Amino acid sequence: MAELLDLTDRRILAELDVNCRISDTKLAKRVRKSRETVRYRIRQLEKNGVITGYLTAINPNRFGWHMFKVYLQLENLPSERQKFYSFLRSSRRIYWYGICDGAFDCIFAILSRNVTEYYDEINSICSQWRHLIIRKVLGVMVDTIQYNKKYFCETDPRENGGFGGNTYSNTLDEIDLGILDIIANDARIPMVQLVRKTGASVESVRRRMKSMEEGEIILSYRISVDLNKLGYMFFKAIIYFKSLSRRQELSLREWMRQHKNSVYYIRSLAPWEAEFEFVVENYQQFNQIISELRERFPNVVKNCEHVLFSEEGWMPAYGALKKA
Questions:
Q1: Per DSSP, which regions of 76-210 are E strands?
Q2: Cα–Cα distance between 100 and 237 in angstroms, integer?
Q3: Cβ neighbours of residue 28 under 8 Å, at least 6 residues apart?
Q4: Model confidence over 10-21: pLDDT tens digits?
Q5: How far apart are CA 21 and CA 23, in angstroms?
Q6: Is the dihedral of CA 202, 208, 214, 217 positive or negative?
Q7: How far apart are the first and last CA of the chain?
Q8: pTM (predicted TM-score)
């Protein structure tokens, strides 16, 4: 499938990843094609399984939630693993999950209001699945920088907002939460349908969405793609630092921003300090990136582990923020 995508397809994917709510007319101007051509291309990308969804990047920390990370090694019990993964997909507290091979078998981010709530929640999960869990590592996500998907085509490197950070007590009412509940996994929904589902007026919905964008509750509107269809692999590098000055951190951040394969820079409170995520063509390319990282920052990088994702999901059963 990767070789069947031409430059126009890749430009459409790149633009949709920056803002998937862009109108067909504006998108057509950006890629210099007719509106009919753009609509047809998008339908084909959806039909062929390249585009698998339209996601709203939401920062729960902006309205009172913390994101805690859980890293698990699991017993070789295939049927129990599948049950556990189904549990994660259906949990209203799971913000993100990844099924992987390598240092860990599964990683997920869980939403909690405070440390005590997180303690009770993770103990409940680990107790329920104690027969499956070999080892667990717990952490706190400090913040995450997301980058535009430069592997679609040559585009200017940019940061598309960040998750996590300080926690704020911004109050969202039922209509705000209803909007987020709808657009979380349906970010390209037409405004007329969004208005109908929320029961609010067009002016009210637009005003609320703009307010949440300005308040960085809504960070961006992006696409989800099947990397296998594009001929890519998704790796997480778990980085242990020797030391990290502010100047060194800024250099690392700029290196990640410029790198054509980078997608996320995650700062963590865990046995390690950071997690860098890359989309690459093969393991050899990923290995070259890590070698470059070690050579470029010999006084910073102490050790590196990695995982290869076979599946990930954002807000798989979104509704926690409204119903929990």
A1: 94-102, 106-112, 133-147, 159-164
A2: 12
A3: 34, 35, 37, 38
A4: 999 999 999 999
A5: 6
A6: negative
A7: 41
A8: 0.91
